[in-house]
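Bench notes, bay 3.
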Amino acid sequence: MAERGGPLREQRARAIAELVRRLGAVSVGELAERFQVSEMTIRRDLQLLHDRNEIERTHGGAVALERPTDEPPWTQRLGQQAAAKQSIGRLVARSIPDGSTVFLGSGTTTLAVADHLAGRQHLTVVTNALPIASALASSAVDVVVVGGFLRHREMSMIGHLAERALEQMRCDEVVMGMRGVDPDHGLTSEHLPELVTDQAVMRTSNRLTIVADATKLGHVAASKTAPVEAASRLVTDSEADPDLLAAIRARGVAVEIADSA
């Protein structure tokens, strides 16, 4: 009790803030266990950090603050390169065989894949993206939604709860979008707390398809998710730089170009 407002509390608060930034999301229970204090004490610590604008409180825990990036929310990105995203989505959807289980990550290009899967049967889609689950909700596709902490800008579920669920899953293929795809700097994204969740998604399958329109190629974002060689194939559009595509192929990644037809 004597520690309230004292140096021990401040030291613990700093450690909690760093943990939230690194993991993206934490729960009161796991923090209480980690720091060997009561859940009430942890709630007071989280409220302190929330008041300082260091974290965002949630029911039962906390998530990392969304820091400004050059990536707009998914709703604003829907109209960007829309034709290219639809052609990519169509090509990828056609390549997914009946009877398979595929993970669709968050993003507007993967949403285009989901749109082209909506008329299919005998297919299971696993996702942590609420827009994708919604797009397939009225279809015959079996949908498995991974829970976790909500990332509002992307409407995706991230954090330790999502990662624990993903440990139990195996998919025939993972389809993900990336903010940046570069032969040297790899697969990169803007939101550091989502990094660990994305890496857990990748581990659910030995086949990773990256969907990225031409504007994503050569771009390098803030956090490196994986080397470009982690991808089995890249599906992009006809505006992609041929030199970049050649360099990506040289890394052992199959490259497919989606036309607008």
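Next record in the batch:
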Amino acid sequence: MRQTLLLLMLLSSFGFHSAVLAQSVGNEWINPNQTYFRIPVSETGVYRLTQAFLASKGITGINPQRFQLFHRGKEQAIFVAGESDGSFDVGDYIDFYGRKNDGSQDSRLYRDPNFQLNKHYSLYTDTTAYMLTWTLDNTAGKRTIFTDIPTPPDDPQNPIVYETYQWKRELKVFNDRFTPGQNYPLGSSDKIYISQFDTGEGWSSRIYYG
């Protein structure tokens, strides 16, 4: 009877352990056999990694067709100049579009994700990380193509009509003041804040009085 009970306990424990291992933890994109080079990005824009720069970091002898770039677990499309010959030579480079950090991942810190005040500005840092790696087989990385916009021919019979204006959408993020969020009364004049981020807590603008 004791042996049967022990066997059932072991099987139950093994089943629970397997279920934990099978859960997604967010790092499934990482190949433990590959090397990853961390690239900090704090401003949104186009970034260039030259052959000389990567060589100074010890990244040499790589077939550029195997370069990959990841951000938050997703592969990003990159442009690799000079990769067609399978050799990353002097003058070759990698271009990619990088975005600075925002507050999209901070919602996990709140007591309720809907309480997050500012999803466009991080609670802690403007810097995020892009991870450059290269596959160990012949798998090609995700690519984008940069092309010049062709200039239309000058036709006197059909002159080009240029627009006199354009619409532009711009996001203004107010982040010059940190608001502590919800407080809870404690006695006649004291108040407390819970350790988790609460409703109304985060970066915002200053208070204006009309």
